[in-house]
Each structure stands twice: as C-alpha cells, then as structure tokens.
Fold:
Amino acid sequence: MSNQNEQQWERVQEQVFRNWVNSLVSQKGIGVVNNIKTGLTPTCFKEFAEILVGKSIGKKLNNGNGRIYDINNYSEILGFLKENNIDVAGCSAENMADSESGYKFILGMMFSLYRKYCICRSVSDESNNFKTGNKVDSMIWDWVNEKVQGYGLHVDNPSTSFGDGRIILALVDSFMGNQIYQSYQNCTNEERVKKAIEMAHENMGIEELFSVDEIVRCQTDERAMMLYISLFSQVFKTKEMMDKQNMSYVSRERETEEVMKRQQQEIEEKEKLLKQQEQAFEEEKRAMNCNLQEQMEQQKIEHQRELERMKQEQENMRLEQEQLRQAQLKELEEQKQQMMKE
Structure:
C-alpha cells in the first residue's frame, strides 16, 4: 500500500474521529478537540468513554501532571471500557500517554469504537451482535448498493466506482427525495463529483474529506472511502429515526385528535340530551301551570258559586224572617182589634 494512501487514510480518520468526539463531548461542556493525536486528554477521553458506555466510571481522575499520572488515568479509562466489553484494539495507556509514537494505536482504537457505535449501528439493526471479525466494509458496500440500485448503479470496486460521482450523487439524491440526479448526467465527471460532495455537505452535513481530483482520479484509499460513505449511512439512519419519531408523533397527534373528536361528540350529545330534558321540563312546567291555572279557575268558580249560594240562603232567610215578622205583626194587629171589639 502506497505511502500516499496511508497518509490519506490517517488524515480521513483524524477528521472523522475528531468530529465524532467533539459532537459527543461538547454536550458535557468540554472544549473542542483540535486533533486526536494530542487533544484526547484524560479528562476528554473519560467523558467520551462514559458517554459511549452510558454510565460513569465512578471515580475521579488523578489531578497530577506528568506522564505517570496520565498513564494511570488512561489505564483507568481503558479498563472501564474493557469491563464493559468494549474492544480497544490493543491500545495501551502508554500509547495514549505517548500520543506521538502511539498515534496509530490510538487511531486503531478509535476505529474500533467508531465501527461499533457508528458504522454498525447505521447499517445493521443487530450491532450488539456484530463481531470484530466481520467485514465492516462489506456491510457498507452492501448498504450503498441497496440505496443506489434504483439508479442502475453498483459498487463493483470501491477504489474506482466513485470516480464519476454518480454513486455519491445518487446517495444525496435519495436523501433529498429524487430531486437532482437527472440534472447532472450530461456534465463532466469533475463537475458531477464537485456538485455531489458540495451538496452532501450542504444538505447532509457531511464534511468534504477528499478533493475533487482525488475522487475523479480514483486516488482514494478504499478504507478512507469506506469511512466517508459511512457518514452517509449515519445521516440516513438519523433521518429514518427522525421520520419514525415524526410518524409516531403524527400518529399520537391523530389519536389525540380522534379522542378529542369523540369527546366533543359526547359533549355535543350530552348537551343535546340536556337541551331536550330542559325542553321537556319546560313543557311539563307549562302543562303543570296550565293545569294549575285551570284548577285555580275552577276553584274560583266554585268559590263564587258557593258565595252566591250562601248569599241566596241569607236572602231567603231574611225573606222568611220578614214574612214571619209580618205575619206576627198581622196577628198582633188582629188580636188588638179583637180586644177592642170586646
């Protein structure tokens, strides 16, 4: 393998792993890691390891300065990873403390971690069962072929298949929803590659790890290209997860709307029933009022009749008394006249 390929492989690893570390440790307020070789300090590496494992190491690092302290701290962190069944690819605490001479070991460990937590999880749903001996590059190329088969494309040789830019453009087009691929079929390879990597950066946030010339001339290291394409798989995976979350949200929103609709219908039905009950009550009330009014009128008439009857009886009694008095007066007058005759 040429020295140029090795340098490119090292450069691409540095860029990818540095961005990955920064994307995680920035959540903890750790400063930006400028490079993996010297920036992966014990403090930064501890935070990074805890995020990967999902729990705390449970002890503080030694605050002393110097190589011995660094080796002890790195040893604690590497031991923590191993205890949680995470392969560190033979990287030792001494390699990390002597980062200049141990740089390749550090990159090897970072590739192992990146492979487990990023690549495998983006192209397989069974990343936890993925063994170290499996070919991660085969998984990546299988994933690419699945994505671009609808465009009539295929990765035959990772070293040469990307030279015309069509596969990268197809990945971007697939992500964007089939908007751009056909527009760049009649341009030169240089123009197509340039547009593809630019749009991947603008629309997918994928860093331009190669120059246009490196891709067109097929001067890309196969491992480096695999890392570059793995960034696409991660973006697609993130989009799929977000789409699922959105679908779940939409589904929950629809369910909520249905529940609210049913509740509104129940409220309307209850309001309708209540209104009917109120109307029935009013009608009953009016009927009762009518009956009561009729009863009162009838009672009034009966009372009036009773009063007239009583008045008539009183008048009759008065007449009878008057007649009796007249009869008595007449009788007295007759008696008086009789007595005068005698």
Notes: The chain is about 70% helix and 0% strand.
